[in-house]
Amino acid sequence: MTRRRSAWAAAYHYPKGASMRNIKVIVSDLDRTLLRTDKSVSAYTLDVLRRTREKGLKFVAATARAEMGFRILDLSCDAAIVFNGALLLLDSREPERFTIDAATADGIIRTILKLDPNAEIVVETVDISRANFDPRRFWPNMIYEPHDFAAPLPAPVYKILLPLDRFSKVEELEPLLPQGTHSVICEDTFAMILSESASKLNAFKRLCELWDVPLEQTVMFGDDLNDVELMRAAGVSVAVANAGDEAKAAATERCASNDDDGVARWIEENLLS
Fold first, then answer.
1. Residues 6 or more apart in contact with residue 94 via CB below 8 angstroms
2. What is the pLDDT of residue 91?
3. For residue 92, what pLDDT is reported?
4. Which of 41, 163, 171, 235 could form a disulfide with 18 if both were Cys (CB 3.0 to 4.6 A apart)?
5. How many angstroms separate the CA atoms of 31 and 63, rounded?
6. Are 270 and 20 in contact (CB under 8 A)?
7. What's the confidence (pLDDT) of residue 10?
8. Rounded to 5 degrees, what are φ and ψ at 269?
9. Alpha-carbon separation of residue 208 from 24, 225, 262 (angstroms)
């Protein structure tokens, strides 16, 4: 079935010179973008992704979720960027990791706890997530091990998560971080501390290098601050209707909301018709 081009899509065009006919790779954020608010993926969206790949276009998920949180969705992907770029998953290659070493992560945690002994911290290491509180009030399906962070961490770290209470802006957190790390605010809910090499953009650049695809031949869907850098780099960038102001400002196009299957509708109208 052919759908009419939506009003959102019709109002926004792609001034970077990218041609829809040249698009080879589609990359999309998950929560509040591809996924509906209830964290489900509609049958329509799954069908569009299937037809997208049958047409020869590659589809990549790019998410701040942990690897397990991505895998439970059982999406049809050619690759996945998880932990906000700290881990790149490809079926045909060994995973590529961009981590913080355990000693550096320990130092960051000590600094935070010195400032606020009651700070709530989640650390997602290469083996398991550890937390000094029950993080399931934010992430109901998180599997974690209680940890008071008195003992050294036993493994490299993908990211450190801090619920937004004391640190509500990156500018408040960055001065506390050692060289080689950076912070990102996500979903207006928490701050992420990662290796400076870990970002959705850096992981996607690496992927495009492996596939020999220029960024001009890609389209990125996003909704949040941690999507903006990659949205600005992609040939076409699309903000869902429910996106934050920063993501909308970075987008060359817009589509319907996540609850209206905006990503799938845009793909079908622009790349499958």
1. none
2. 81
3. 76
4. 235
5. 8
6. yes
7. 39
8. -70, -35
9. 10, 22, 25
Instruction: Determine contact, residues 89/66, Cβ cutoff 8 Å.
Output: no
Q: For residue 11, what are the β-bridge partners? A: none
Q: How is residue 127 annotated by DSSP? A: S
Q: Which amino acid is at 206?
A: R
Cα separation of 187 and 138, whole Å? 11
Q: What is each CA distance from 164 to 125, 235, 263, in whole angstroms?
A: 21, 33, 28
d(CA 162, CA 168): 10
Token code pair at residue 195: 């290796």
Q: How many CB atoms within 10 Å of residue 6?
A: 18
pTM for the predicted model, two decimal places: 0.88
* 235-255 pLDDT tens trace: 999 999 999 999 999 999 999
**Which structure tokens are listed for 168?**
């509500």
**In the β-sheet with 129-131, what is the strand arrangement from edge to edge?**
144-146, 129-131, 122-125, 157-163, 190-195, 181-186
Hey, what are 87's tokens? 């881990």
Q: Which has the closest alpha carbon to 64: 156, 183, 181, 239?
A: 183
Question: What H or E segment, with its residue span, contains residue 88?
Answer: strand 87-90
For residue 30, which phi and psi values (nearest 5 degrees)? -105, -75
For residue 122, list its beta bridge partners: 131, 161
How far apart CA 105 and CA 162 sit, in angstroms, is 13
Strand pairing of 181-186 and 190-195?
Answer: antiparallel
